[in-house]
Every structure is written in C-alpha cells, then in structure tokens.
Design goal:
The protein is about 30% helix and about 25% strand. The chain has about 170 residues and is of the alpha+beta class. It has a domain of about 120 residues.
C-alpha cells in the first residue's frame, strides 16, 4: 500500500468516525426544552398519586412491626396458589394481636404477577377490624398489597350500630 493510499484511508476513517460519535446530553434544556418537560407517556408521580401507592398500604394501623410480620406471613400462606384455599390464622402472644386471612377468589394474573383477593379479621390494640383487599406475588415470591379497605358488610354494621346508639356514622 502506498503512502497516498494510507493517507486516503486515514482520511476516510476520520470522516466516517464522526457518524458514530456520542453526543453528551445534559438535560432537556440542551435541546431547547425545559428539564420538567414530560417526554414520555409516564409522568412523575405527584403527591396525590403517591398517596395511592400500593407500597403505602398497610393491613392495619393497629399492628406493630412484629404483628405485621406475622400477619403478612399468614397472608402469604393463605393466598398461595398452591395452597388449600382455606383460612389461615395468626397470632402474636407477646402483644395479644391475632387474626385470620381467607382467600375470596381464585388467583389471577396482573402485570406479570399472580394476584388474589382476600378477606381478613384483625384484632390488635384493642380494636377489631374486618378488611378486604388483594395482594400480588412477584417473581421474588413476596406478596404486595394492591388494595385494602374495610369490609363493606362490617362498615355497614358499624354505621348501623352507631345509628342505633344515636351517634353520627
């Protein structure tokens, strides 16, 4: 290869290497936009949507850390798709808290997870609650609550009892 051919090849490589050059980005402002511009279909969570984040859900405000750990373990056993589908009881002798979880439907898929609805009775901190909800199990086998609310029948019974006693519901 002659010197002229080598020089031509080097010039060609130099000219073409600009096509694969990475352009550093420093935010949307570099391109004439603002840093808070929404550039995709998913916006940043607002304070309002954060309040509805499933990670903020709890079975009961009356449960302490150990009660919640024991209750969550029982919930996982009750909702297990390979389980019997029967009610699973739990208790914490140290605090006196106890309860039971009962699956109320068949497992169903949701966003690549296995989910199942449940009903629960929880007695803790001098309060008795009946709740209903749903939880999903991810690939790590951890169950995450996706919905928790007072059981409709129980909430109606509390309203009826307060009305009978002359209190506001």
């Amino acid at each position: 290869m002659s010197g002229a051919q080598i020089a031509a090849a080097a010039a060609m490589i130099g000219a073409l290497s600009g096509c694969s050059m990475a352009v550093p980005t420093t935010g949307a402002a570099m391109w004439g936009g603002r840093d808070d511009d929404v550039t995709g279909s998913i916006a940043k969570p607002s304070a309002r949507t954060a309040a509805f984040n499933p990670q903020n859900l709890k079975l009961s405000k009356a449960l302490d850390v150990e009660d919640a750990r024991r209750a969550t373990a029982a919930l996982g056993t009750a909702l297990d798709p390979q389980g019997s589908g029967q009610s699973v009881n739990w208790d914490n002798p140290a605090s006196g808290a106890h309860g039971a979880f009962r699956p109320t439907g068949l497992p169903y898929p949701l966003d690549g997870r296995i989910c199942r609805a449940f009903a629960a009775e929880i007695d803790a901190g001098g309060e008795s609650e009946r709740i209903e909800g749903a939880a999903c199990r991810d690939k790590t086998a951890e169950w995450t609550l996706i919905r928790v609310k007072p059981e409709a029948k129980a909430a109606d019974a509390v309203k009826d009892e307060k009305a009978a006693n002359g209190k506001k519901a």
